[in-house]
Amino acid sequence: MHSAPAPSKVVRPRWPRQFAQLILAAGDDAARAVLWAKVPADWRELVQLHIAQADGRTEQHVRQQERLRPAVRTVTPTFAEYRPPVHVPGNAVVAAQHLAALRATIHSPRVSQ
């Protein structure tokens, strides 16, 4: 794949579309005004047309991207009501209950018979 070499020097635009590209690429209004002053009078209408078309495409692209953006959720999430924790007996309590049950079976009158 060969790409076109970058121009080594600044070339004066030869077509209205090239002027429009330069004006659109200019950052601030002062730079755009300087470039507008360099546009030949017979090309100004064409350059303005190219800039309007490019702005229209940019606006269309922005609108399309906004449509594709997910909707903003304005509803806050609902939280579950507070429920106090249920007491679960620990291992020591369960072990004591089992030991008490075993002692009760050992001391029951049925075992001693």
Provide structural commentary.
This protein is an all-alpha fold and about 110 residues long. It has helices at about 15-25, 30-40, 45-70, 90-105, 110. Helix 1 (about 15-25) crosses helix 3 (about 45-70). The longest helix is centred in the middle third of the chain and has 25 residues, at about 45-70. It is rod-shaped and about 120 Å long.
Low-pLDDT residue spans:
none
What general form does the structure show?
rod-shaped
In round numbers, the mean pLDDT is: 84
Radius of gyration equals 41 Å
Give the SSE string.
HHHHH
Strand content: under 5%
Query: Which structural class do the helices and strands define?
Result: mainly alpha
Number of contiguous helices: 5
Largest β sheet strand count, sense and barrel closure:
none
Helical residue percent band: 55-70%
Q: Using DSSP, what is the number of strands?
A: 0
The first-to-last residue Cα distance is 102 Å
